[in-house]
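I am still learning, so would you mind making up any protein sequence you like and the tokens describing how it folds?
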Amino acid sequence: MSQPISLLICALGGEGGGVLSSWLMDTARRAGFPAQSSSIPGVAQRTGATTYYVEVWPTPLNALQGQRPVFSLNPVPGALDALLSSELLETARQVSLGLVSPDRTRVFSSSGRSLTTQERISMGDGRTDSAALLQLIQQQAKEAQVWDFAAMAQAHGTMVSAVMLGVVAGSGLLPLERAHFEASIQDGSASAAQTTASLKGFAAGFERAANAQALQAMLQDEDSPPAAATLLDAVSTRSAQPAAVQALPAAVREFAQLGYQRLLDYQGTAYADLYVQRLQAVLHAENAADPAQVHAHAASRHTARWLALWMAFDDIVRVADLKSRTSRWQRVAAEVKAQPGELLRVYDHFKPGVPELAALLPNALAKPLLRWQQQRVATGREPLAWALKIGSHSVLGMLALRTLASLKWLRPHGSRFEQEQADISAWLQAVTTGLQADWALGSELAQCGQLIKGYGSTNERAKRNLQHILVHLASAALNPSASWRAQAVAQARTAALQDEAGVALNTQLNRLGAAALPATVQPLRFVRHAARRSQAKPPDNP
């Protein structure tokens, strides 16, 4: 080769991209190959990435007979040999900049996502479609190897940079031996524990990349590119599913299987079976509205997704259950990189109030308690709540959490459970009625399930928005045309997801000629201040 091997590394803040670049440079020089690296600093965890550009001359320095190669300080679009990235969206961004060439560039990318600020603040599902990103990478790259680097690093208790170094070494991109890479890790790590973890992560990345290269060599005569499913780690549920779930159409079964398992864990078999029964009712209505299955059961698919999330609503029992699970303790220990013999303490903060207590009580007891709380707030006083700090690492703390989690049997007898089921039934009734009038109307109403999210006041506001749409837009009272109502529901749902205050939704309701959202009562709250001094302290020297 008369040109250096060029590699662009993309890493988010805190992922060790600088360490990875240093390892590569040390490895190349240790093996006697000329190399050069440069970097462009990013901004923060997700507002920008730091890129590191590395060039390695493929001929050892002692074979150049005194000549010195000339390196570039930055990558040239279309002239990149490999792109290594720790995040899928960042990989696609570099591809969109034209740096990747279909006839030259090999892409090694993590399938993991670190959501952007815009994705996080969206009230709906603001996530970018990973399948579209993967398709773009496959189309523009000569070779694409994509799997979850971060999960592999977490499994071995190390940083993602160690796994990425193993990917480079195992891919055969650079003419460097594995022993040279491992020596660079051993010399560059701060402690023996870090060295051991980094070597484990490196080995995992090396084996995965090497196996992928071997597999690709076996399939190199194939004309068709590998399917996207073969590039990503498949996650499947192996738990037994009831016959009713297996009998659902394929498009619906994907979400129904996950929903059934979620509700089985949430409340038990009877509650999970209720989920299937509700879903079957919607499916029956959709089959009648679309007997030719032109829309591929899209309305039932939406219902399967949002119904499972709504039925598994968050309450204090659910929170205690999740916080006291072994998997949660293992995840926390992995995140803080706790080593054997180290002391780890985890404190959970709770602030349950009257609504949380009333949620587990039957209506006969809950309603007087909630009225008392409303009267208390109406007088300008703070809502009654108890700030709790529970050490889940201790025996007493874990016992308290598990005791609270064991109250799952009490949930179906509580006032909140009864109210949630009534709201869910009203939504599903609107969906089936809408499907009978027009498939598009029923489908739009099914998608309104995504409005339900959050907890506390956010959850209450979301349910008020949904109920308002069902009453004032879904019925024929405002407009007898089912197609008009379908468009109106879609527009209102989109507006409701734009802001929490409901300004966009009210604006849209006004355009449609529907009633505005009712004003929410906000009582005045009086805050006691310390008495001010009647006069200032006189100076020492008048």
